[in-house]
Amino acid sequence: MLCCGICTRLASLLMLKGTAARPQCDLKFPGAKPLNEAGHNRKHLAAERAEALRRKRASTEHAERAERERISQARAEQERAKQERAEQERVERERAERERAERERAERVRAERERAERVRALREDVERQRIKLERAEQGRAEREKERAERDRALREDVERQRIKLARAEQERAKRITARKEAVWRGGTCQHSANRGERCMFAVLRARCCDWSDVKAVKKAYHKLMLHMHPDKGGSIEACQTVTAAYKMYSDSIHRIPMGLRMCKCWSERTAFKTTGTP
Prior knowledge:
Elements: H1 2-16, H2 42-186, H3 190-195, H4 200-203, H5 214-228, H6 236-254, H7 264-275
Helix pairs in contact: 5-6
């Protein structure tokens, strides 16, 4: 297409000079116009071709330069955007750092204030506890003094009561011993003495008022027979009395309904065991 354009221009120039020859192209390109019969100036054609190549190269270079400039501008824009973004990020980081520093400073101030409040409250609490302990110590000393006085008075009262109880116990023991000796010597207990009878428990020296059981009475009988039997130096009358009392006790266990004469306490004991009523 470039060659055809050059040929067309050459033909137009020749026609303007008055030449009658028709241009004819010797390059045999399709659609090319023929050059004049005298031939074409090949130097001029080469110059035209060189000029066309130069222009094409210039346009190509211009396009490449424009593309490079566009690319460089795009890169510059990218770099500038990157720098702006980096600057914005730096500003954001600095702002975040300042905010964090402010928060940390505020936290430190608040922590210091809270620590000072805790220390003050702790000192006040320690002072209150000290005063409370001093008052408690004073009260404890007073209570100890009062307790010592009460203990001393209580010990004195206990000692008086102990002496009183000991004396009462001694007197009671003396009365009981005298009563037992009187019963053993007379062979009667309180109930039998009121009726003028002899109690078999008194004869056997068993505790009728304590509701002695069969084993206890039997033990008392054997104990008496150890020194009241005639072979052991006792009298026949005493041995017979003890034996009769023990026989009466043995028979009374099975013959209560027959109305044998017994001690009142033994009758009550047996009635309670048989009927359930005293």
